[in-house]
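for the record, two folds in this file. i put them one after another cuz i was lazy. first one right below, seq on top, structure tokens after. the second one comes after a little note so u can tell where it starts
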Amino acid sequence: MTFKYGIDHLDLDIVNGIADGKIKAELCQEALDQINKSRQNVDKMASSDKPVYGINTGFGPLCDTQISPEETHLLQKNLLITHAVGVGEPIAKALSKLMLITKVHALSQGFSGIRLEVVERMLTFIDLDLIPVVPEQGSVGASGDLAPLSHLFLPLIGEGEFWGQGDKRVPAAQVLAENALQPLELHAKEGLALINGTQFILSHAITALTKMRYLLDLADLTGAMSIEGMQGSESPFREELHKTRAFKGNLEVAARMRRFFKDSQNMADHEECDRVQDPYSLRCIPQVHGASRNAYYHLQELAEIEMNSVTDNPIVISDEEAISGGSFHGQPLAMVLDYASIAAAELGNISDRRCYLLLEGLHGLPRLLTTSGGLNSGMMIPQYATAALVTENKSLCFPPSADSVPTSMGQEDHVSMGSISGRKLNQILGNLEKILAIELMYGAQAIEFRRPNTCSDLIEENFKLIRSRVAKLEEDRLLKPDIDAMIELVKSQAFTVSLDKVEK
């Protein structure tokens, strides 16, 4: 397929496909016409005596200062230079690329008044993999992601840096010269169109959604392996039960758990046992994992709306009118990113509880998952790591969107802090990968004590994958390499967790 910027509907899979080079994206004639018409409207307003914010006036608290046509170009250049004040380490190159892609789509809808030449130069950057360096800190997420977007577009005017080979940072002027590209001169409104917007927040949301989608599925697998190890009950996952409280996420998780246990000899061996109920961390997986899945869907819905929105200011609607509003404000994403942070943290929270359960020596399992306890500590200490990571995630769950610090001499007196929300969610997900990796190691060890019983085909497939990298623990050994190997399997998304793929 070929995606048409400014025309087609962008979603999670398409934006990732464009970024990965698997989906071609271009400007069609309809988009070209939209861009050019909007530019004509700006040119007319810029040459008039009527003050129009962002076109022939200053910015922020200087909105009542009119700028002459002769000064317009310098104003736009100054805008990028003065707002490029980001600090901290740079964001990943992949995030900067997502920012470029989503910005092109927004600008191509014909409401931003930018010249076609500028949009085409951004596409050249994407096509040649010339990705600007963007610092991770410094955005308050309200007048758009001003600082990150300024850094993203400094190379248009020959300033800033690009990523080079081996994560080397190269001056933009040098890279432009090497690719026979001349720095651009920005015209009326163009600087503002470039740096107003939520693409920094949005790109963090896209990255988080992509990772969280897999981790939600993986969490179900880890829970299923732990239940197999504990020889828990299947009854909490029955369809009849969940139809009586039909939250979307709950229903999906319960169905997935039933598939994970399908034809399990080990689970069938437990059917006549005298245990009445399992602890919540086993029994309530559909409710807890399902709630996190519901939060994921909420974030996905809002992020896809944002992917297809125009978020700069003002919005050009005719040759006489540009509406100055607040579509750059990051609150719609900031709040749901904070919600998703809690959801991701809870997946880790309940996973840690299952790890602890597996160590207690209940229901036929040896304490610490070793038959040589005393001389050997077995699997005791990795749970310390999960406990630490869980607590770290809890500390990251404070919602930045609940805070606001006025900026711009009070003109921007309520801000979203959505950039921080996005960054924190991705931190939490990074910790969650490590927690689930350890639970998978525990689950595999516990299943060893249920042999010769076999589990479902899915569980056995993933068990074999674990054993290809991590051997059964017989006596104490250095566990750090085992944990690192498990984390790598999780990060590379090596586990079979998608039931769609299995059934096909």
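(here's the note) second protein begins now
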Amino acid sequence: MEHKRIDRPAFITSVAIIVVVCIPLAMAPDTAGRILQQIYDYIAQEFGVVFLLASVAVNGFLIWLAVSRFGKVRMGAPDQAPEFDTFSWIAMLFCAGIGGGLIYWCGTEWAFYYQSPPFGAEPYSVEAAEWASTYGLFHWGFTAWAFYCLPTLAVAYPYYVKKLDHMRFSNSCHYFLPRGEIGPAARFIDFLFIMAMIGGAATSLGFSTPMIATCIAWLFDIENSFTLEVAVMFLCRPLFATSVWVGLRKGIRTLSDVKLGIGILLLLFILIVGPTAFLLKTSLNSVGVLFQNLVRMNFWSDPFTDSSFVEDWTVFYWAWWIAFAPYVGMFVARISQGRTIRQIIIGMLVFGSLGCWVFYMVVGNYALFLELEGIVRSTEIINEQNQSAAIVATLSQLPLPVIVIGVFCLMAIIFAATTYDSASYTLASSATLHLPAGDDPSRGHRVFWAFALGALPITLLFIGGLKVMQVVLLIVSVPILFVGIVMSVALVKSLHADESAASGVTVE
């Protein structure tokens, strides 16, 4: 490890957060779980509407930015070529942005909406089925990637255009930092980033680990248990560390390309051997329902019922994306040298959303088909066991189930790996004093975080699983939400100031 390059305050703060959070949670899991649930209920009820308004605001802001004259601003010199080809760039931003959470939710999320649909629809009805196949597209669509895109632009612009020699989340507020990037304000913003990134990355791995363990238990006919989940986490760690050790181009890029390739092949297999006509018709119908009700879904606050649908689902997802946004934004900023603001916005909002939608359209609608036909009752399996068991039961109905579940398990592991190696890379970048454009943090530094980031997911699984993870996400997202307002203003002011300056920004 190259100690001279490490930002010791940032490094020590990151380690301290992991230790301070994990020890109390592990020592008093019941008390911790109860307190966290109370915090979640309060924030979701009192501030839920703020999250809804933020989702509308960020989409509107990015659309304006893309169509404005600033959309042509390039991240780097005017003739700067993109560092990565388009396929690898999309693969890396997609893999960093969704992690193992996508394949955990795409096959089961519909079941919750089918049982407890929005807008007062009758459970288990045709209308409930329509909403069940549609709402996943809404939650994993434009808003998710808009939350990711904002910090991407806010970090990339000062890094590549203003030529800052370090990459930290506080770069996003560069215009307003009176004492430079090492002052108290910057340190506080980076502290919030560390909290959000650790919580977001931990939650993502917390979702994927039980699913991987369930697949392994089915494949080898062994008992699924918490011990197996912990073992999976430890066994996957060398893969994460190896990827981040090899580096951005040969490790993270290669894994992202492989994961995208495996995902495409698996989806094509399900589409071809499954109920093809049903999948195509349901997917087309879902897109239509989504766009027909997009305004309603974005602004629906459910004021006249006690369904808690918005708080349990939409607010949870918006909080998840916001908590994940600083990490994803920094990583995508790192791989976006040479691309324009417009290219970044379109690439993230359009291709990111389409990538998520395809998984929901194929895997989710296939599971819905089995439910409607009475072949696999995912709703009952989820209520009696868990989501992971429902996923395995769904995949086992396909031809060559051993191969299919084996490939799915491998894909889940690679999904988790690309999340954690990019998270490790980003955290190491943030805790590095000087990191010029195109340079990487030290290998030892990256590998350390690949191992250290596993502590919190294990703790969260131990004290309460999914619900506790939702609470953590909501808590860490609140301060990031307000930082997002500051970075939006900072980005616009920087663009205007540089445009009007004598040395202004170069526009194609």
